[in-house]
Automatic annotation (TrEMBL):
Its main location: endoplasmic reticulum. The keyword Transmembrane helix applies. GO terms for cellular component: endoplasmic reticulum membrane. It comes from Apiosordaria backusii. InterPro entries: P-loop_NTPase, SRP_receptor_beta_su. Gene3D superfamilies: P-loop containing nucleotide triphosphate hydrolases (3.40.50.300). This is Signal recognition particle receptor subunit beta. One of its GO terms (molecular function) is GTP binding.
Length: 312
């Protein structure tokens, strides 16, 4: 009986408006949310995975590669569902993990079964259509390029872009028609990264940005080997560079304006006749060209996977 009485007393005391109860209640209401916030915000550093941005002209095989890496097996890639892709219209991201002890571990390895430590990152597949490129390019413009990740639970988290994979169709490049449009896109990507280097605010230089030109479809015998993809792209980028700076001169603006314009639009190191990817090193943009294939009986995608693994 006495315990019942105590409980009754306690209840009565807590329900009677007394200054102590009010103050304690108010304090709890104010402090608890703040405490909970700190508890959760420190406990989940997971919200920002690094990301790798996948760019390139339409039909290069970006979505095919994304699907291949997501499935982690090439068993059904010959004429299976992976081959049936369609033109992408919105960016999409998938979560992948590399073996952080050994980035050369195949993408086919299921890291859940291994004792190795897995490092997670997002692969962001973008649409290659010219009308849909602007938003991908805009993301690269910031000193610390980030991408809004729809995968992360709170939806609004920004993921830091660690590397760019620019995929090209090496078979389409062989007949020359696709070269100007492909190079035009690559020019804009590299120029955006170069401008970002110049636009750094304060003393902190932006982190270097590795770019992989992935020469895809090397399973086709008509495809250009990676070395030719590289030299053809470099030659075409040089042509675009010359044409764009000539366009500025021809448009009748004064010499002073040209100087300002050149600084903005001239890709790579100044003064050199020929363009080469090595000139981008000056702006901390490190370009590699590696051949591979997503489907068919080709060199596969392992070299690209290793390149990505070493950079996330
Ligand atoms: N032979 C061959 N075909 C490939 C390879 N990779 C992709 N393809 C084919 O190329 C076509 C286009 O691939 P997608 O992945 O849709 O191209 P995408 O880059 O995503 O194109 P957009 O979404 O329009 O920007 C598909 O029919 C693929 O099957 C490859 O390594 N070899
Ligand atoms: Mg696509």
């Amino acid at each position: 009986m006495s315990t019942l009485q105590t409980i009754k007393d306690l209840l009565e005391a807590s329900l009677t408006p007394s200054p102590t109860v009010i103050i304690l209640g108010l304090a709890f209401c104010l402090v608890a949310p703040i405490l909970l916030h700190f508890l959760y915000s420190t406990a989940t550093p997971y919200t920002t995975l690094p990301s790798v941005l996948l760019l390139g002209p339409p039909g290069a095989g970006k979505t095919a590669l994304t699907t291949l890496l997501e499935r982690g097996s090439s068993s059904d890639t010959l004429d299976g569902p992976v081959a049936k892709t369609h033109t992408s219209q919105v960016p999409s991201s998938i979560e992948l993990s590399v073996n952080s002890d050994d980035p050369s571990t195949s993408y086919k390895t299921n890291l859940d079964n291994e004792s190795a430590t897995a490092k997670k990152f997002l692969l962001v597949d973008t649409p290659g259509h010219p009308k849909l490129r602007a938003s991908s390019l805009m993301r690269l413009n910031a000193a610390e390029p980030t991408i809004k990740s729809s995968l992360v639970s709170d939806g609004g988290a920004k993921s830091k872009i660690k590397a760019v994979v620019f995929m090209v169709d090496a078979a389409a490049l062989a007949d020359g028609d696709a070269l100007p449009s492909t190079a035009e896109y690559l020019y804009d990507v590299l120029l955006t990264l170069q401008k970002r280097f110049h636009s750094r605010g304060g003393s902190r230089a932006p982190a270097s940005m590795p770019v992989l030109v992935a020469a895809n479809k090397l399973d086709l015998f008509t495809a250009l080997p990676a070395a030719l993809v590289k030299s053809n792209l470099e030659a075409e980028l040089g042509r675009i560079r010359a044409a764009r700076s000539k366009g500025l001169l021809d448009s009748g603006i004064g010499q002073d304006d040209v100087d300002a314009g050149e600084e903005g639009d001239w890709l790579g190191g100044d003064g050199s006749e020929k363009f080469s990817f090595a000139q981008m090193m000056e702006f901390d943009v490190d370009v590699d060209v590696i051949g591979g294939s997503v489907i068919g009986d080709g060199p596969g995608a392992e070299k690209w996977w290793k390149w990505i693994g070493e950079r996330v």
